[in-house]
Amino acid sequence: MNDITRRPPERIKSLVRLIKNSGLYPQNPIVNSATTEPVIWVDGRDHLLFCSNNLLGLSNHPEVKEAAAKALDRYGLGSGGSRQMAANIDVHRALERRIAEFVGQEDAICFAAGYMANVGAIPAILKVDFIEALAKVHLGHESTLPEEASVTPGWEIFSEELNHASVVDGVRLAKAKVSKFPHKDVETLEKHLSASDRESKFILSDGVFSMDGDIAPIPQLAELANTHDSLLMIDDAHGVGMLGANGRGSLEHHGVQTSQVDLQMGTFTKAFGGVGGYVAGDREIIDFLRISARTYIFSAPLPPAIAAGVAEAIDIAEREPWRREKAMENARYFRREVQALGFDTLGSEVHIVPVLIGNELDAAEYTRLLRHRGIVAPHARYPAVALGQARIRFVMTCEHEREQIDYLLKCLGEARDTLSH
């Protein structure tokens, strides 16, 4: 093997060694218990978990597990194919109808992961010209098969700068002109929209921002979308099940009508304790995604047992509002007390409470010191956040008790004292 073919692997190995030796390589513990509980078993002892997405404690709920077990017994482990082939199973459609009803949209399309929902749906929407040309060939109106364009003419995407990585990657795959606008800066967005010469416009924003824990100005986004005849899609992965009088998400929190937002994306991983993602909206737009979203067409769907369990979890979340209320109260308490210790929680408004550290190496040391005290709370650093903006991202669930949060606060103060000496 010559040097040319060996060099890239050697460079990769050398880089990994450098990152590990510097203390920047993620130290993810091997967990020997369910990671959906506030107390987990790591390295032979109990640890408090403050980064779980099992926000409402539904992953291990007896009724959820029973629904999943019954579906597992009936349908087996996997789906046996894609939805376009043999695996369009009744539990998949039942879940799609249930989540659409819950968020107040006509229909929904489910994906095997939330990431797949965004990277599938965003570029799919911009393929309308290609799909239209393809339909004409199938109908005999045209004789030449169209080619997918290397770029998507006629479209401009307006994307919030702190959107989730799955939105960012979906935008990249869309191959359209992109204008980013600063975090929650609707004035700059309006300027971009007014200056655009594109026929079709597409505004994309998270509903709740995953690293800052603040909420998007959806009423203003909806107003701008209407004024500029733009499509609007909200990624509500961290809002659905948690925000609003009935837990229906960021739109309900703001009092925005679902008719004002064309597409609502969300996941089943957070509030509903499962896995998977969805996009909800007008029935015909959802039907279009079924024939254009590649991550739907060319991938196996959710296992039937997961689909059945998630549907049950939605029912429980809807009838037991105390779960989201307690999670939010835990977050309010922790936010208030950690601020009293002098820590910066940025603009946190929800169950996600970041504690800004700044320097990446310092953040890694905080994580290590907390772990030494029996707390699992990884830090977020670039590229998840900007350089110099590393933070510990704490997540409060309905299953955390006040004594556990108080212990976390004590350990954070001790870690800061250790690092300041």
UniProtKB/TrEMBL annotation:
It comes from the Bacteria. Keywords: Pyridoxal phosphate, Transferase. InterPro entries: Aminotrans_II_pyridoxalP_BS, Aminotransferase_I/II_large, AON_synthase_class-II, PyrdxlP-dep_Trfase, PyrdxlP-dep_Trfase_major, PyrdxlP-dep_Trfase_small. Its cofactor is pyridoxal 5'-phosphate. It holds the Pfam family Aminotran_1_2. Residues 46-410 form the Aminotransferase class I/classII large domain. One of its GO terms (molecular function) is pyridoxal phosphate binding. Belongs to the class-II pyridoxal-phosphate-dependent aminotransferase family. PANTHER family: CLASS II AMINOTRANSFERASE/8-AMINO-7-OXONONANOATE SYNTHASE (PTHR13693). This is Aminotransferase class I/classII large domain-containing protein.
